[in-house]
Design goal:
The complex is a heterodimer of chains A (352) and B (348). By secondary structure, chain A is an alpha/beta fold. In chain A, 29% of the residues lie in helices and 20% in strands. The model of chain A is unreliable at 23-38 (pLDDT under 50). Chain B has 2 domains: 4-231, P-loop containing nucleotide triphosphate hydrolases (Rossmann fold), CATH 3.40.50; 243-263 and 275-336, no CATH class. Chain B is built from 10 helices and 11 strands. In chain B, helix 4 (115-126) packs across helix 5 and helix 6 (162-174) packs parallel to helix 7 (192-209). The chains are: A alpha/beta (352), B alpha/beta (348).
Chain lengths: 352, 348
């Protein structure tokens, strides 16, 4: 099966944030023998060597806890932050041209529906701006185009919403306006960073179904970033699990959630609420994510991992195939995990 | 049936007064037994936090209790009418009998006081007989109980992670070995692994110390796992209350059914889910009759004009629901008439 050229592709994206010099000797306590540090100073290794490929009519979920690097990754994909290393490709070509042209193709929707709309402007103003800025509609047709956009995000009748101010809308309605604004430029990619986390539970599904509709009916490629693995399973086709700045597992969403191959994914799934679960879950792996200033050597999860072996503390595991019959049947890229347990030479010790 | 510990009947809380008053809690009933975990589920505007603060008389102005009664049944003593209690009695009740872990506990700790000082503060107020050395020892014991090393006693809140601050709040709430701990969204801002660890620790502490928990959260899927009984609130009213597994397998109220359908499963076949159309109402402009009727998929004519009382549905074993569908005058739609699961070790 030939895979179509992905619309958006990240290859080995890395982002290190420099830590500003502090007045006392704190830096010396944190500094380590040189890895590649841009200015020879301390850095936060926020995102390390992340690759992904987003196809049209596809939703990829990026799942991780806070501090996993998922939002930093999204901002690199939106070209709001420039990577320390790695490449970003749009339709197979380097995405290095004018950012404005890039924004026509790739748009972002953010988490906080209260913060992403300007409280002193009405809905019409918010949607007119991108249309006018990119010359997408003559002034005479603005109201019609905007009404159409609002109805596309199920704010009907659109005309009733034109003169509303953000404070007159519910959280869910504000988020729909934010999505409509992103859709105004007719992008091919939507980067949605925790778009429903701040909304009431009963209205989250409506928004998620809207995003699913944009994938199915309009062929948009959507990156859905969330800490909620259940909603990722609901909406997405593929899932990428991030931990401490790195991808630890990726594959078809049902395969990863039913047969997690990485110990961190297993921990995440056992900790997530599940009413169907008969008995309380057994958590394997205590503790919390490591410092990103001086992350552990080798696999960043190894200090917490119940299956850690000697090699885990020495070498960073590459993405290794965890493909099973089931994932092959689901099609698309197989299931892989960055874990030495899946190396053909693996010799897992007994659990400590 | 285990002993009754805390009971609220017909509680009403308004914000403001006069014609513009917002009815944040209307006619709410709540029943808590010794050692029970009662979950209070609801979305924004449901009144769940207001109900908890009302019960403990910790409402901030302009919140005011306008009706109902709250009784606390002291072990081995006479019941206390909480709404009539005077300040000295309330001070005894608060923290030594009923303690509170608030939402966003990481922001509830005093940033300029050490952990030790905050832990010993309640001890100093409630146990005048304790010496300073005894208080320090007890503080160390409390930290140990929640899995934090005693050498963190001298730390300040900003030096602890979010999960650790939450554990400190829990330690403070348990310091005087209360009968009831009220927890308002205690794990919402934490990552799912830390959340699960803290819940495990809480469960072990409960087994050891035997306190009851009123657990308030919007995360119904979590409550089904950890609560014995769940009360669902909508627009200031309790609309259903049942044993947790019964609520999950056999919901009776359309809002409960809709809420349960808002949580996609972690496993099993993927199917399209719709949540609940519309959004929670503005408390200043509540719908007439049943507050949920504009969003209800099973609405009857009378729902728009009369508000249904909270009462047992036919065959309901200890559960209650506020819905006209169950008054016996019509057949109940199939999704709301699922058979009750077998009760195993119910506390009701």
């Amino acid at each position: 099966m030939t895979t179509p050229v992905p619309i958006l592709e990240a290859r080995h994206l890395t982002k290190h944030f420099a830590v500003l010099r502090s007045s006392r000797g704190a830096r010396s306590a944190l500094s380590r023998p040189a890895l590649s540090r841009p200015h020879g100073g301390t850095v936060v290794h926020a995102v390390e060597d992340v690759s992904l490929a987003l196809a049209p009519a596809q939703v990829i979920a990026v799942v991780g806890e806070s501090g996993s690097g998922k939002s930093t990754l999204a901002r690199m994909l939106a070209r709001l932050i420039s990577p320390t290393a790695g490449d970003l490709l749009l339709d197979g070509h380097a995405a290095s041209g004018a950012r404005r042209q890039y924004a026509r193709q790739v748009q972002m929707v953010l988490q906080d529906p209260f913060a992403s709309l300007n409280p002193v402007h009405d809905v019409r103003y918010h949607l007119a701006r991108p249309l006018l800025a990119h010359g997408l509609a003559p002034r005479a047709e603005l109201d019609d185009v905007i009404t159409g956009l609002l109805e596309r995000v199920a704010l009907t009748p659109g005309s009733q919403f034109l003169r509303k101010y953000p404070h007159e809308l519910s959280g869910g309605q504000r988020q729909r306006v934010a999505i409509a604004r992103a859709l105004a430029v007719r992008p091919r990619v939507l980067l949605a960073d925790e778009p429903v986390s701040m909304l009431d539970v009963s209205i989250r599904l409506g928004l998620l179904n809207l995003l699913g509709g944009l994938r199915d009916d309009d062929g948009l490629g959507i990156l859905y970033i969330t800490h909620d693995i259940a909603s990722a399973r609901y909406l997405a086709d593929q899932v990428i699990v991030m931990y401490a700045g790195q991808v630890v597992e990726s594959g078809p969403v049902e395969v990863v959630t039913d047969h997690p191959a990485h110990p961190y994914t297993q921990l995440l799934l056992s900790a997530a609420p599940d009413p169907e679960r008969g008995a309380p879950p057994v958590l394997r792996g205590r503790g919390s994510p490591p410092s990103l200033v001086s992350p552990p050597a080798g696999c960043r999860f190894h200090p917490r991992c119940p299956h850690a072996m000697a090699v885990c503390a020495e070498q960073v595991p590459p993405m290794l195939s965890a493909t099973s019959e089931e994932s092959i049947n689901k099609g698309g890229p197989g299931h892989s995990a960055a874990c030495w347990l899946h190396s053909p030479d693996a010799n897992p010790q007994k659990e400590t | 049936m285990t002993d009754l510990l805390l009971e609220a009947r017909g509680l009403c809380v308004d914000y403001g007064s006069g014609p513009g008053a917002v009815h944040a809690v209307a006619d709410a009933d709540l029943v808590l037994h010794r050692g029970e975990v009662l979950g209070l589920a609801g979305e924004s505007g449901s009144g769940k936090s207001t109900l908890a603060f009302g019960i403990t008389r910790l409402l901030r102005a302009p919140g005011v209790i306008t009706g109902g009664e709250v009784r606390f049944y002291r072990p081995g003593g006479s019941p206390v009418d909480v709404l009539e209690a005077d300040e000295p009695l309330l001070r005894v009740l608060r923290w030594s009998q009923v303690s509170l872990v608030m939402q966003s506990a990481m922001n509830a700790l005093n940033p300029v006081m050490s952990i030790r000082t905050q832990l010993t503060d309640a001890l100093r107020a409630h146990r005048p007989g304790m010496s300073a050395a005894q208080r320090r020892a007890r503080a160390a014991e409390l930290l140990d109980m929640v899995g934090i090393s005693a050498d963190r006693l001298g730390s300040f809140p900003h030096q602890l992670s979010g999960g650790m601050r939450q554990r400190v709040m829990i330690a403070m709430a348990l310091g005087l070995e209360p009968q009831v701990v009220i927890m308002d969204e205690p794990t919402t801002a934490l990552d799912v692994v830390t959340q699960r660890e803290i819940l495990e620790e809480l469960s072990a502490l409960r087994d050891r110390l035997g306190f009851a928990i009123l657990f308030i959260t919007h995360d119904l899927s979590l409550l089904i796992e950890i609560a014995d009984t769940i009360a669902v609130m909508y627009a200031g009213r309790v609309v259903e209350r049942a044993e947790a597994k019964a609520l999950f397998r056999a919901p009776r109220h359309p809002y409960t059914l809709g809420l349960l359908s808002s949580f996609p499963g972690l496993h099993g076949p993927r199917r399209r889910m719709t949540g609940i159309p519309g959004s929670p109402p503005d408390l200043r402009e509540l719908p007439s009759g049943c507050v949920f009727h504009p969003r209800c998929g099973f609405v009857l004519d009378r729902c728009a004009s009369a508000s249904p009382p909270l009462g047992p549905p036919p065959g309901g074993r200890g559960r209650v629901v506020a819905c006209w569908l169950h008054d016996g005058a019509q057949s109940v739609p199939e999704p709301l008439a699922k058979p009750e699961p077998d009760h195993i070790g119910s506390t009701l």
